[in-house]
Structures are given as C-alpha cells and as structure tokens.
Amino acid sequence: DVPGSVEQIDFLHAHVIRHTADNTNAILRVGERGGGPLCVRCAYTIGAVFVDHAADRELVLEDIYCDFHHTRHWQMREGFMVPRAPQSPRNWYVYRNATPAVRKTVHAVSCTQFCGGCAQSGPDALVNVDLRARLVNSEHFPEAALAFRDSTVWIFGLKSEDQDTFLDFANSTVDIAGASFLQWRRVDDTPVVRARDSRYALDLYVWAPQRIALCETRGGRSSTVLTKDAPRSVRRGGLVLRPRSGRRVCDGTDHG
Length: 256
Known about the structure:
By secondary structure, this protein is mainly β. It has one helix at 72-75, and strands spanning 8-17, 28-30, 38-46, 49-53, 59-66, 93-97, 104-112, 126-127, 129-137, 144-149, 152-161, 165-170, 173-182, 193-196, 199-207, 212-218, 221-226, 238-241. A hairpin with a 2-residue loop joins strand 16 (212-218) and strand 17. It is globular, with a radius of gyration of 18 Å. It starts with 7 loop residues before the first strand and ends in a 15-residue tail after the last strand.
C-alpha cells in the first residue's frame, strides 16, 4: 500500500516487473486517502496490473509504459524479463479501480496498455471512474481496446490496433478528441464502437475495413451505422461519431 503521506513516486524509468501470473493484487495499491493527489511516474512495467486504485484519492499517472501482450514471446526468452510461466492477456495493464463502488478521479499522460481489454460488461472494464487522459495506447487485447461503464471519460490522443472492437462503453459520457484505430484484418460482424445508453463525441481516424462503424443501444432499442454511411472528417478515413445535436459532451449539455 502507498501511504497517504506520499505525494509522488518516481521510478526514474526503472523496470517494475512481476514474475508470476497472479492477477489478484497489483504491484502498487493506493489504499490510503491523502491530503492531495498522488502522482506516479516514469515506470516500465510488465507481467501484472500496475496500480490498484482503492482509496478515494485523486491519482495522476505519467509516462507509465506497460509492455504489449503480443511481445510475450520475446520477453519470455531465456535471459529476458519474464519467466516461462502461464501469462493471461489480462495480467498486463496499468490501471484498475479496485473498489468500483467508490467514484475515482484519475489523470493519465503518456501511458500504454492503460486498462484491461474486454467488453464493457467484462471484469477488466473501467467502472465508476472520472478519467482525463492524453496520449494513451492500448492494443492487441482479446476484445475491446478500451471499455468503460458508469464513467466520465475525456481522452486527447488515443491509438490502438488489431482489435475486434475499438471502444465499448455503457452508461457513460465519453469524449475522444483525436484517435487512430488500425485494423489489420477484415472484420464484418463487430463494430468499431459499441455504445449503450451513453453520451459521446468521437473523432476517430479508422484504418479499418470493418463494415460496421457504430452499434448503439438506447433504452433497449438498437441501431447501427455502417462505415460507408458514417459522417466523415476532412481526411479520408476519419469518422466523426456524435449524437444528432453534433455538440461535444464535455460542456455538460444533455444529448438525450
């Protein structure tokens, strides 16, 4: 546990590694409330969840590099950092709300593999979080790159690739101001974005041959926007997915 009296932890770009496949506990646990925000910065991590956010304390994560899951076959070679133990794709990511019944505020700047990839209903989705992030890269998860539930999310600069679904969120307010999604293969039956009973404004550059851009459910009624019919930004490949009002969501207005 990080004591509440600690205001900053700087790993000075050191390797912070767990050599087992245990995903029960993170490497760090913010378990005590403090007088102000806690800043954790400059770490290279692998093999585990990096931070469990348990206490009601504002958290800042800066320059946290969690290695990608698809590099495991390199990292587990003899003499490298991770032993040849079973490793679940859900073992490696930066942030988890360990007590989702308590609303958390977290700021992330320049982080890779920020949260676990899954559907918004899955165990590794971000739940009940106010997130403000800049320059985030999450990719090669088995399901969605980023998933949110009951959260407020603003991200400036997001990149992902090789996912069936890029974003999956429910009962959330999501504002993505600039994102790049690269899909290496043709996917016809899953959408780039899946939204349920949420407010959103998404400016995406999609390098993906996916047929469905958006699958949205509101009040039990579902609708689909095909990629060929989605609104376009100025550049080829750019999708602008917003409610019919066309306004961004961070101004607090109701988009119905």
